[in-house]
Amino acid sequence: PVAGYLALKRGVDIEAVHFASPPYTSPGALKKAQDLTRKLTKFGGNIQFIEVPFTEIQEEIKAKAPEAYLMTLTRRFMMRITDRIREVRNGLVIINGESLGQ
């Protein structure tokens, strides 16, 4: 939410993408993401919340990839999906709050 807030503060319109993968993530995680998105609307108007079902992809990665690569591949798929959403919705950038310098 901090990266979203900072983008809104600079006048950027944002959309929130959440990857839901029950049973690996709880319904509480989805609700928390929705609540945080709702709170961010105070700083930038209407924010589209996009929920991406991710369980099948996550299970496929787990079944076929070496354990040492699971996190990297999971993040890569999330970024690829987010980039496709950005492309379809004519977005300009992906802001995810990660520090590339770390």
UniProtKB/TrEMBL annotation:
Transmembrane segments: none annotated. InterPro entries: Rossmann-like_a/b/a_fold, ThiI_AANH, tRNA_sulfurtransferase_ThiI. GO terms for molecular function: ATP binding; CCA tRNA nucleotidyltransferase activity. GO terms for biological process: thiazole biosynthetic process; tRNA 4-thiouridine biosynthesis. Residues 1-102 form the Thil AANH domain. One of its GO terms (cellular component) is cytosol. It comes from the Bacteria. Keywords: ATP-binding, Nucleotide-binding. Pfam families: ThiI. This is tRNA 4-thiouridine(8) synthase ThiI. It comes from Streptococcus pneumoniae.
